[in-house]
Design goal:
- With 169 residues, the protein is of the alpha/beta class.
- It has one domain: Purple Acid Phosphatase, chain A, domain 2 (4-Layer Sandwich).
- 26% of the residues lie in helices and 19% in strands.
- It has 5 helices and 9 strands; from the N terminus they run βααβαβαββββββα.
- The protein has a 5-stranded mixed sheet with strand order 4-3-2-1-9.
């Protein structure tokens, strides 16, 4: 049985993100290798990963090389830094699926790059990235930017456990 993971905001090849977000890497190459290792430490070839955007700042060949090294079936929801490239560019770079819009997952989770407005009376949860080291208050928002999860994809089982108390699962 395969697992489903989510993560966002790798910013592969973006040297300045190391300073902007106080990432613990000497340079972009160390950041790339560490993030690939952390991904493959939890994701198997049979798993699925939904990446919530801002994947790579590199050219298509370098991006494709990284995508090919990552385990799992990979879906990309375009982030603000990804939208300058076409859907077909990302598919050519190796993603299995690419969405230009948020995805509703299991009828309950809104998966998006940027946080979405969630009225406190809405019964849904917004799983998002974009805000890196920041967090929105409340259980309706789960930030899956790499800075929040030690640069490692988080499983939907973990997300579900955060949202629904264990006696209700």
């Amino acid at each position: 049985m395969s697992n489903v993971y989510v993560i966002s905001d790798h910013h592969f090849g973006h040297t300045n993100i190391i300073d902007f977000e106080s990432r613990p890497f000497r340079d972009a190459d160390e950041m790339t290798e560490t993030m690939i290792e952390k991904w493959n430490a939890v994701v198997t070839k049979d798993d699925k990963v939904i990446h919530l955007g801002d994947f790579s700042f590199l050219n298509k060949d370098k991006t494709a090389n990284i995508v090919s090294r990552l385990n799992g079936y990979k879906t990309l929801i375009l982030g603000n830094h990804d939208r300058g490239r076409s859907r077909s560019w990302w598919l050519d770079a190796g993603f299995d699926e690419v969405s230009e819009n948020p995805i509703v997952y299991n009828g309950f989770y809104f998966l998006s790059h940027e946080p979405m407005y969630m009225n406190k009376h809405m019964p849904y949860v917004n799983v998002h990235g974009h805000i890196h080291g920041q967090k929105y208050e409340g259980k309706q928002y789960i930030n899956v930017s790499v800075e929040q999860w030690d640069y490692t994809p988080i499983s939907f089982e973990q997300i579900k456990a955060m949202v629904i108390p264990s006696e209700e699962q």
